[in-house]
Each structure stands twice: as structure tokens, then as C-alpha cells.
């Protein structure tokens, strides 16, 4: 099996697992995007939201997952 096939299969499995987690535990994950350090400015006619801390945490998690995948291949 070629490397591209493995990458596509692993990507599909990861997306399916992420979808199942969001489907079954979606209401319990409402803290995502509301972490300390996320910037939120709300006014009457304007709403600005920039999830700095959430993106850093997501980047660390995805980097770890991709590192593990590269070690397995």
C-alpha cells in the first residue's frame, strides 16, 4: 500500500472520530472557544471574536497527532 493511501485512510478515520466525538459530546464541549485568553468584544451592533488560546491548544493537539502519524508511517 502506498504512503498516499495510508495518509488518506488515516485522515478519513480521524475525521470520522472527530465527527463522532462532536456528535455525541457536542453539548459537553461548549468550553471550547471560551478559554481564558480568547478575545471577545461585544457591542450593540458589533461582535468581534478571536479565539487565540483555543487555536494555540488546537495547534498543539494537531501537531501531536500528526507527529504520531508520521512515526507510524
Question: What's a quick, concise take on this entry?
Answer:
With 73 residues, the protein is mainly alpha-helical. The protein is 60% helix and 11% strand. The protein folds into two domains: 1-28; 31-73.
Tell me about this structure.
The chain is mainly alpha-helical and 73 residues long. It has two domains: 28 residues; 43 residues. 60% of the residues lie in helices and 11% in strands. It is built from two helices and two strands; from the N terminus they run H-E-E-H. The protein has a two-stranded antiparallel ribbon. The chain starts with a helix and ends with a helix. The mean pLDDT is 85.
Q: What topology does this entry show?
A:
Elements: H1 3-25, E1 39-42, E2 47-50, H2 52-72
Antiparallel strand pairs: 1-2
Amino acid at each position: 500500500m502506498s504512503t498516499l493511501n495510508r495518509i488518506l485512510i488515516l485522515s478519513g478515520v480521524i475525521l470520522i472520530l472527530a465527527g463522532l466525538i462532536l456528535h455525541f459530546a457536542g453539548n459537553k464541549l461548549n468550553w471550547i472557544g471560551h478559554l481564558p485568553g480568547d478575545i471577545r468584544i461585544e457591542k450593540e451592533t458589533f461582535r468581534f471574536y478571536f479565539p487565540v488560546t483555543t487555536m494555540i491548544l488546537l495547534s498543539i493537539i494537531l501537531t501531536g497527532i500528526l507527529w504520531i502519524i508520521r512515526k507510524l508511517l
